């Protein structure tokens, strides 16, 4: 997995070496909320996963070849959360809950295509992650909790798609982006909840991110353009 990331980074560096002289760099940072959802084989019994809000932040390096196309590398940290609730036999009330928190180092690598006026963009690529910590807490009652161990994979890969727009502030600019992330490999080996398990479990995540970026050198490619 990380061989793929390394090859992509090397390709970007080679492309930057032979890029036209009007290509430009931008450095920035983004942060925002995320929402994690488990997908795959349904859990046994009367239980469902409920997405919870998390947090993501990253540095961002954009290499813009021209006013229409750029490459973006965004190393950062993500905290993902979800809840598994067990319902009663009639499915009308919650009798048990498990809370999951996953912390990971992430490396999204995206291709970005800009609109004609330079304000809007769409993005697509891959995210490579390394799991730093995964915890589950089971609430068995108002005063009783347990924290079992869960076996999850260290490395995960996601396909990502997104869209956003920028707001110039002179040379710097703000970015606002919505991103969808689909897990491509199984997360668990497996997730165990009491006597139930999920043999095949992937994650789908959604993100809303706000960033601030500063172009380096001449920033003509980052200026808004009027329609002709």
Question: How would you characterize the overall build of this protein?
Answer:
It is a single chain. It is built from one helix and twelve strands; from the N terminus they run αββββββββββββ. A hairpin with a 5-residue loop joins strand 6 (120-139) and strand 7 (145-146). The longest helix has 16 residues, at 2-17. The chain has 228 residues and is mostly beta strands. The relative contact order is 0.22. Strands 1, 2, 3, 4, 5, 6, 7, 8, 9 and 12 form a ten-stranded antiparallel β-sheet that branches.
Q: What is the strand and helix layout of this fold?
A:
Layout: H1 2-17, E1 24-40, E2 47-64, E3 69-73, E4 76-87, E5 94-114, E6 120-139, E7 145-146, E8 155-168, E9 173-183, E10 191-193, E11 196-198, E12 201-216
Antiparallel strand pairs: 1-2, 1-12, 2-3, 2-4, 3-5, 4-5, 5-6, 6-7, 6-8, 8-9, 9-12, 10-11
Keywords:
228 residues, mainly beta, Porin, 10-stranded antiparallel beta sheet, two-stranded antiparallel ribbon, 1 helix, 12 strands
Given the structure, what is the number of helices?
1
Inertia-based shape: elongated
CATH T-level fold name of the domain at 2-38 and 53-80 and 101-131 and 154-188 and 197-222: Porin
Q: Radius of gyration over alpha carbons? A: 21 Å
Can you name the CATH architecture of the domain at 2-38 and 53-80 and 101-131 and 154-188 and 197-222? Beta Barrel
- Cα separation of the termini: 45 Å
Q: Mean pLDDT, as a whole number? A: 79
Please describe the biggest sheet, giving its number of strands, its sense, and whether it closes into a barrel: 10 strands, antiparallel
| Helix/strand class | mainly beta
Which H/E pattern describes the elements? Answer: HEEEEEEEEEEEE
Number of strands: 12
Helix coverage percent? under 10%
